Amino acid sequence: xxxxxxxxxxxxxxxxxxxxxxxxxxxxxxxxxxxxxxxxxxxxxxxxxxxxxxxxxxxxxxxxxxxxxxxxxxxxxxxxxxxxxxxxxxxxxxxxxxxxxxxxxxxxxxxxxxxxxxxxxxxxxxxxxxxxxxxxxxxxxxxxxxxxxxxxxxxxxxxxxxxxxxxxxxxxxxxxxxxxxxxxxxxxxxxxxxxxxxxxxxxxxxxxxxxxxxxxxxxxxxxxxxxxxxxxxxxxxxxxxxxxxxxxxxxxxx
Length: 254
Fold this sequence. Notes:
Structural class: alpha/beta
CATH superfamily: Aldolase class I
Largest sheet: 9 strands, mixed
Distance between the termini: 36 Å
Radius of gyration: 18 Å
Strand content: 15-25%
Helix content: 25-40%
Oligomer: single chain
């Protein structure tokens, strides 16, 4: 690929932009991670509203803000904060949002520009709602994975927006992780109907499923985790905490 012009190419980042923390959910829970949060999303998740999460989506306040930044500006910020060295020492680059695949074309350029500038490509994991089919170009990236968080009926958006069988089949074939936010036993029934014993042929393996409690604070996490863990035990899937709430309560970042 030709050299990327980092002064002309850009991305729309969220209000918290890029930050270094510990992954709180799913397969990589506890891993040091550099989060790059993209702005914009194609869902609302308004059904997840709780007293401690009044916007439904726990990162709405951040991703609803658009900060247009050139690749050069992003790299300068990452260098200043020592994020490049964290990535060089095996921290994960988490491409999250919102929905990062809305900006997929530019993200592919960003990853290539990163490789050209720093002579390595970090471990990359996408956080995606699994409504958009990723480009096969990601298969050319040495170490990229996808952590999906498909939205159930309880998220409050119309099913025609949240349930995209072709995108879900792509992720099941790729081996992506599937995180599900659990509100009640109705969510369990829906997961089995639409993702495990599924007429569309998605058939996610049980060892690639993580159940998480629906919560927006440390207190809600404490109140709701035990029931979700029991569901996970009974159905032989993984339980995921929301470690960022356990450690930092309602904070989006530290």
